[in-house]
Design brief:
The chain has 12 helices and 12 strands. The longest helix has 16 residues. It is globular, with a radius of gyration of 19 Å. By secondary structure, it is α/β, with parallel strands linked by helices.
Length: about 300
């Protein structure tokens, strides 16, 4: 039994589940090692509401079947992870502004009339996580490493939260330019293979965010060649930088280790995961869960 399963069972052992219990779920493939059940069940418990959260493995191409099942079974909320975020965005009845801009959904809400509304809470989860650390993105210049789904959600949120400038650095300049389209008035594309441009972007940034998978372990108990690798050179990091890594397994990546050695403030990605989950619960229930309890549960599971 994994530590995640143990923490989940502890959360459930303090609750009696019955026919009237509201059910929310996460769909994806894989979801075996997902922290979401741990985080959400502790969040529901902090609210004192009769909800439970489970993980459901749904294969690629079966997103419509998952939404049909959601309606048939009366699920009250749905979290969506890879590989279904884009497909769900085109299948729900309506989408929020962020989900529409990103063509991606990580949260499905059941409206009062039974229609399904898609949301994206990832980017706002990061902004909320930074705010908890005393970091405001308002008026800041930010270098984002990567141009994939995580980077795009962050770019959208940073733009809406009035950051001053965004540099999107990616090996493929074409992909970086597509991500820049989310904030065309303030964003600039940079190739990571152009050392001069990358150095200039870092030099002109207040915050550096790694939105790539570099430094991540694939799953608990495995070792990845990327773990001891940083997405940028340590020479680009200044003591006054704020360095954020969206990776949370391991909690201290090589990038964060280098940042701390340089005297910079280093922030891991677990806060983003927890805060985006808290935003999901607000959408589903209208209530604000105890984020501290959710974070501590996630830490315990990762330990």
């Amino acid at each position: 039994m994994t530590s995640t399963q143990q923490t989940f069972e502890i959360a459930l052992s303090e609750k009696r589940i019955h026919a009237g219990t509201s059910i929310a779920a996460v769909i994806g493939d894989p979801v075996k090692h997902s922290l979401s059940p741990v985080i959400h069940n502790v969040g529901f418990r902090s609210l004192g509401i009769d909800w439970v959260y489970v993980a459901c493995e749904v294969k690629e191409g079966e997103a419509q079947s998952a939404l049909d099942a959601m309606k048939t079974l009366g699920l009250r909320g749905l979290s969506v992870t890879m590989p279904h975020k884009t497909a769900i965005a085109s299948l729900v009845d309506a989408v929020s502004a962020a989900a529409q801009a990103l063509h991606s959904v990580n949260t499905v809400e059941v409206a009062a009339d039974g229609s399904l509304i898609g949301h994206s809470t990832d980017g706002d989860g990061l902004v909320a996580s930074l705010k908890e650390q005393g970091v405001s993105v308002n008026g800041q210049a930010i270098l984002i490493l990567g141009a994939g789904g995580a980077a795009r959600s962050v770019i959208d949120a940073l733009h809406r939260h009035a950051c001053r400038q965004i540099f999107v650095a990616n090996r493929s300049l074409d992909n970086a330019q597509m991500a820049v389209a989310l904030a065309p008035s303030i964003a600039t594309a940079v190739s990571t293979t152009d050392s001069t441009s990358l150095f200039a972007a870092a030099a002109n940034s207040d915050i550096i965010i790694n939105a790539t998978s570099v430094g991540m372990t694939k799953s608990p108990g495995t070792v990845s060649k990327n773990v001891s690798v940083s997405p940028i050179s340590v020479d680009l990091i200044r003591p006054d930088h704020i360095v954020v890594d969206l990776v949370y397994h391991p909690m201290e990546t090589e990038l964060l280790r280098q940042a701390r050695r340089r005297g910079a403030l280093a922030i891991d990605g677990l806060g983003m995961l927890v805060h985006q989950a808290a935003l999901q619960q607000q959408i589903w229930t209208g209530l604000v869960p105890n984020v501290s309890d959710m974070y501590q549960a996630a830490l315990q599971a990762l330990a």
